[in-house]
Design goal:
It comes from Lachnoclostridium phocaeense. By secondary structure, this protein is mostly beta strands. It has a domain at 93-347: Methylamine Dehydrogenase, Chain H (7 Propeller). 12% of the residues lie in helices and 49% in strands. The chain has three helices and 32 strands. The strands form eight sheets. A four-stranded antiparallel sheet has the order 1-32-31-30, with no helix packed on it. A four-stranded antiparallel sheet has the order 2-3-4-5, with no helix packed on it. A four-stranded antiparallel sheet has the order 6-7-8-9, with no helix packed on it. A hairpin with a 5-residue loop joins strand 14 (209-215) and strand 15 (221-230). The chain is globular and about 105 Å long. Residues 8-16 have low confidence and may be disordered.
Length: 412
């Protein structure tokens, strides 16, 4: 019986255990170990190739970027043309995402394809435009009418009792105007509907004559640069008026007055809600503060100023070189530190900051510098430039001229 069972069943014996193998431990298969090593090696090689490919792509992109942005272009290629009626008899100003076109007969907001967004007709002999943020005002210099506009259209109309000399506007549409008749000039602030908010007392023999005015973004602060003569010396008086709580108890809303002898300061402006500046013949004064501003920095200049311009981030100056032809272009940040200085030749009647670029043009001539000091363009357009600013795309710009709106690209 036992023999039959032995014949029917085969007894399986355990293999001999590896002396280095612990009881219960899985046996190492040399084939599996080799396969694992090959997989790891393949993954390592694949990862290395991907890193090299990504680095190559980055290097190519950096190279393309440097080629595009570190060279000077001398020609333009016209991409699109959007013709406009009476374009040659109009003036233009970049405004938000479009362009304001204005003349003696009216003002129009156009989009970046030359299409009309809205229009407002009027009759003005000498229209001038001031803009800040979302609002703009067109005023009849020497006349008595003003129209406040924004991206949606007309916000209101204002009639003055005396001829208009200068205007400024806040982003909310509050307007300040220097009015000049037979006597001393007046400074009057209006809301967009034409209601008088404040009237400031000024005298030529006291404060002086207002050379420039500027409103803060919210319309609460008014900056005025006056010029007068005292004891045979030219004096600049810098006044800040506050129409909010800080100035409610102050005489004539005055919260700060600074006096500078032997200085003429024809340019004053707010850069943002907290920073403002005054440009004199030999210095730039930077003020800070939303309620009661105070002088934060003075930039002393050793060259004569040809023109001054600004953006929310930078103060720009064109200075006349001494002992050599040409000019120096400088940019300062809001703290008063010089961040760019480049020399150039050529006379340009219009200079502006657009983002990280300085655009200069006059007649058909144009020159563009970047914030990094790269001379991006030096050349000539076919028609006289009336307005110019960059748009999205590589080296693309909108140029307004007598033909209307042109979209151009800088080329070699």
């Amino acid at each position: 019986m036992r023999q039959k069972i032995r014949d029917r069943f085969r007894i399986l014996r355990d293999r001999e255990q590896d002396p280095g193998q612990q009881p219960g431990e899985l046996e190492h298969d040399p084939t599996m170990q080799e396969l694992d090593a090959q997989v790891k090696d393949y993954r390592k090689r694949t990862r290395r190739r991907m890193i090299i490919a990504a680095a190559a792509v980055v290097l190519v992109l950096v190279g393309v970027f440097l080629v595009i942005n570190l060279q000077t272009y001398t020609s333009v290629r016209i991409i699109d043309v959007y013709e406009a009626e009476d374009a040659g008899n109009s003036s233009y100003r970049e405004f938000g995402d479009g362009v304001l076109k204005y003349s003696r007969d009216g003002i129009v907001l156009m989009d970046r394809k030359g299409e009309e967004v809205w229009n407002q007709s009027y009759q003005m002999q000498n229209p001038m435009v001031s803009a800040f943020g979302d609002a703009a005002v067109v005023a009849d210099k020497g006349g008595n009418s003003m129209i406040v506009v924004d991206q949606e259209g007309v916000k209101g109309e204002i009639e003055t009792t005396l001829p208009i000399e200068k205007v400024a506007v806040s982003s909310q549409g509050i307007v300040a105007a220097v009015l000049h008749g037979d006597g001393d000039p007046q400074i009057v602030c209006y809301d967009a509907a034409g209601n008088i908010l404040a009237e400031l007392d000024t005298t030529v023999t006291g404060n002086g004559y207002p050379l420039d005015i500027s409103l803060s973004e919210n319309g609460q602060l008014l900056l005025v640069s006056y010029m007068t003569v005292q004891n045979g010396r030219t004096v600049s008086n810098i006044y800040y008026y506050n129409f909010g709580e800080a100035g409610a108890q102050a005489e004539n809303y005055e919260v700060l007055t600074d006096t500078y002898e032997d200085v003429i300061a024809p340019t004053a402006f707010f850069m943002d809600g907290d920073t403002s500046a005054v440009v004199g013949n030999d210095r730039v004064l930077i003020y800070r503060g939303q309620d009661t501003p105070s002088l934060q920095n003075t930039i002393e200049l050793d060259k004569q100023i040809k023109s001054a311009f600004y953006s929310p981030s930078y103060i720009g100056l064109v200075l006349k070189n001494e002992g050599e032809a040409g000019y120096e272009l400088r940019l300062y940040n809001k703290s008063g530190s010089m961040v760019m200085s480049e020399k150039f030749t050529g006379d340009y009647s219009n200079v502006k900051i657009c983002g990280m670029q300085v655009i200069m043009y006059g007649g058909t001539q144009c020159s563009v510098f970047t914030r990094a000091g790269v001379h991006k363009f030096e050349g000539e357009m076919d028609e006289a430039i009336l307005e110019m600013f960059p748009v999205f795309g590589v080296n693309k710009y909108i140029v307004m001229n007598a033909n209307g709106m042109e979209v151009v690209r800088f080329v070699k």
